[in-house]
Automatic annotation (TrEMBL):
Subcellular location: Cell membrane
Protein name: Carbohydrate ABC transporter permease
Protein's UniProt keywords contain Cell membrane: yes
InterPro entries xref list: MetI-like (IPR000515), MetI-like_sf (IPR035906)
Keywords (A to Z) from UniProt: Cell membrane, Membrane, Transmembrane, Transmembrane helix, Transport
């Protein structure tokens, strides 16, 4: 029979829960203020003390933002780019990670370290030659530039490789004996066993791409190509006195990634927790 926790252990656990609740409340407070402010009149947003209950509740703000701003175009462009980049990064990252984790070839470890070392190189150090290269290919001022820019990522390869190493090599060896190709092993055996890691990479990549501002700022000039981050920045410049609408647009920009993380958090936590566990 397991020993019952002592009074000191119970007190420590209660104290830990209290600290975590306070920390969670502090993290959620700005988001709650943003949501509440999106339902206020403009002259109520920055009142002191803070008015936590809107009176009256301005649901019309969520209609006006679609009329005054080109939200449909911004959301569509951001969704297209985010889905495409996420698909490409998950595909290329998982496939490259399979080669590094489950195949043997000369220089494999050195090549992996060299590739992972690119994570430490800031994008600002090579974004100018990268811009010149994409411009010479005629991809400047197109969504294709953003997709190609982020189609490959060393972090995804690292994350998937660490998870693949927790899968026993005996499964791959048995499949090779049965005549399955390396592509078949990756697709039919490794991928179905890697759902938590794939979900983690999907969420991380989608959120990062959705929130990207600098990449679209550099490559996208036409308004019909703007993503939601560029559009909201332009909207703030044009309607800087419409504080409630600015908050409404901010809520709409955060809502999709909040929902994705809410529904995928179980796989996300499982994928991060089991990454690096050896099989």
């Amino acid at each position: 029979m397991a020993a019952r926790p002592s009074a000191l252990q119970r007190s420590g656990r209660v104290l830990l829960y209290v600290v975590m609740i306070i920390a969670a409340a502090g993290i959620m407070l700005p988001f709650a203020w943003m949501v509440i402010s999106s339902l206020k009149l403009n002259n109520q947003v920055f009142t002191a003390p803070v008015q936590w209950i809107p009176d009256p509740v301005q649901w019309r703000n969520y209609f006006d933002i679609w009329v005054k701003a080109d939200m449909v175009t911004w959301v569509r462009n951001t969704l297209v780019v985010s889905v495409a980049v996420t698909f490409l990064q998950v595909l290329t990252g998982s496939f490259a990670a399979y080669g590094f984790a489950k195949m043997r070839f000369p220089g494999r470890d050195a090549l992996f370290l060299l590739y992972i070392g690119t994570i430490a190189v800031p994008w600002q150090s090579y974004m100018i030659p990268q811009f010149q290269m994409l411009s010479s290919w005629g991809l400047n001022n197109t969504l294709w530039a953003i997709m190609l820019l982020q189609a490959f990522g060393a972090f995804g390869v690292f994350l998937m490789k660490q998870y693949y190493e927790s899968i026993p090599d005996s499964l791959s060896e048995a499949a090779r004996i049965d005549g399955l190709s390396e592509y078949g092993i990756w697709w039919r055996i490794i991928m179905p066993l890697s759902v938590p890691a794939l979900a983690s990479l999907t969420i991380i990549t989608f959120v990062q791409t959705w929130n990207d501002y600098l990449g679209p700022l550099i490559y996208l000039r036409d308004r019909e190509l703007w993503t939601i981050q560029l559009g909201l920045q332009s909207f703030i410049g044009e309607y800087n006195a419409e504080h409630a609408l600015v908050m409404t647009g901010s809520v709409l920009s955060v809502l999709p990634i909040a929902l994705i993380f809410l529904f995928g958090q179980r796989y996300f936590i499982q994928g991060i927790a089991t990454t690096g566990v050896k099989g």
